[in-house]
Amino acid sequence: MPTMPRHLLSAGDLTRGSAELILDTAERIDQAMAGREVRKLPTLRGRTVVNLFFEDSTRTRISFELAAKRLSADVINFSAKGSSVSKGESLKDTAWTLQAMGADAVVCRHSASGAPQQLSGWVDGHVINAGDGTHEHPTQALLDAFTLRRHLGRLDGRRIVVVGDVLHSRVARSNVLLLSTLGAQVTLVAPPTLVPVGVDAWPAQVSYDLDGALTGADAVMMLRVQRERMSGAFFPTEREYSRGYGLDERRRALLADDAIVMHPGPMNRGMEITPGVADGVNSVIVEQVANGVTVRMAVLYLLLSGEMDGGL
């Protein structure tokens, strides 16, 4: 029986067995919820989940909140803005406050890479990384893998192309680690200025030829250009970026017939991806958002219930 780590801090912490356990549990949860008039399970009644967000977020925060509530957990939403953090309270002091409140799980998003790892040493509850700096976002990778598996079946040997701002993307790092663990072949495509140092050590290929990488691929994942993290000019103009690394109808036609188009959101429409492709028949971008709730329910269930054999 595969085992779960105590905390979910990195996609690299997951073995193939534990990753597939999460994805299989998400499938069971989806089946258990189907047809219910009240879309809730009593699994985590009496448990407390704290959403600790030091960065702005809409999709991820709401997704975790909805996931916890659908499992009947009590949810506390903690935002840095308007809290004691804005008065200078340290992360460690905040952790001690959460510890005193008896938080069973802390979902942490922070602008500093490694913050959830630090937090995990200060609280007794489980810590889930909801995105730390430019480091990782493991539950996004899990929901992406869940979506890919639903459309493509097993991921062994499947060719997945990840395109865009790899340098600043925690989504790219987590997806490379997780998808390679699940047997997929990942190719990163980006301008040379948006490829991180040390990428040669990642379990992925790197290409600067988008058309060549897309030809016959089973899925393409477009990344958001994170201009808020850029301190300089990483490419000449938006039009130039779109011409070299944007996904349009012509490029989508290069993919395999059953290939899917993905994006973690929010999208810069017209720059990274054209509206016609984003809203097209092969796009699963909206489905990714829905799958995020199911996958995060599975993560919370496995970490907090301690049941690995499907006691749903």
User: Main β-sheet: number of strands, strand sense, barrel status?
Assistant: 5 strands, parallel
Domain count: 2
Give the CA-CA distance, first to last residue. 17 Å
- The fourth-level CATH homologous superfamily of the largest domain is Aspartate/ornithine carbamoyltransferase
Strand segment count: 9
Quote the beta fraction. 5-15%
CATH architecture of the largest domain: 3-Layer(aba) Sandwich
Order of helices and strands: HEHEHEHEHEHEEHEHHEHH
Instruction: Determine the number of helices (DSSP H or I, runs of at least 4 residues).
Output: 11
Alpha-beta content class: alpha/beta
- Strand order across the largest sheet: 7-6-5-8-9
Q: What's the oligomerization state?
A: single chain
Protein name: Aspartate carbamoyltransferase
EC number: 2.1.3.2
Pfam family, one: OTCace_N
GO molecular function, one term: amino acid binding
Features:
single chain; 312 residues; alpha/beta; Rossmann fold; five-stranded parallel sheet; 9 strands; 14% strand; Asp/Orn_carbamoyltranf_P-bd; aspartate carbamoyltransferase activity; transferase; amino acid binding; pyrimidine biosynthesis
